[in-house]
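As a warm-up, study this chain.
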Amino acid sequence: MKLNTNSNTYIIIYSAILVIVVAFLLAFVSSSLKDKQDANVELDMKKQVLYSLNIRNLDGSAAEAKYAELVNDTLEFAGQKILMVEINDEPIMIFEMKGMGLWGGISGYMAAHFDLETMNFKVYGSYFNHESETAGLGAEIKDSQEWQEKFIGKRIIGEGPDGKDRVVLSIVKKVEDPETQVDCVTGATLTSNGVDEMIKRTFGIWTGEYDLDMDEGELEKMLIKSYLGKDSISDAELGKMLKVRKVKEEE
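Now compare it with the structure written out below.
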């Protein structure tokens, strides 16, 4: 009996077999490459962390080695991931950030260090990433190293009009305070606003601007002690340091 290749039954069976075979092949390839894919994702994360430390242009093995050399601890608080790093005997905290841009998710890492004289946070370096922003516009948050480097040295936390600490680092259309402000990406106001909100939410946890079941003063102490090392400073010594800071601000 000759097979009727034009019948509906034949077409349905043929299509079903083809779909099953293709699905099997795709599942097999995906499974075979999973370890390599996971390794690539992990390497990309490590490179992004290094970018936030102003360390770029390293190949895979060099980036792996540098990351292992620098990152000595990882903390988690209120859903935040914070990497502890030491460069030239200076402790640095790298904050993982997640937010929303114009067309999709945005993310990044911001490295911060303490100015021990003023007890204020300043940006050591930063790197931003995106899922689907417009090339040449919103995508510049990732593609423009020059724009990312504008954050270096900016103060992150300062005193607000009400006398309480707040996140003063911001992205604006017109810079009026070079110490705390970065100009937005030209033609990408909404993406820039997304980065600004992401920064404020990341550090706003520590200033009490984002509601947590913890006193603002305790949050500040936790952040400073995490930075300096939990066992390296007593509560009494920390209290003295904070009083010195308050006197300097009042002067």
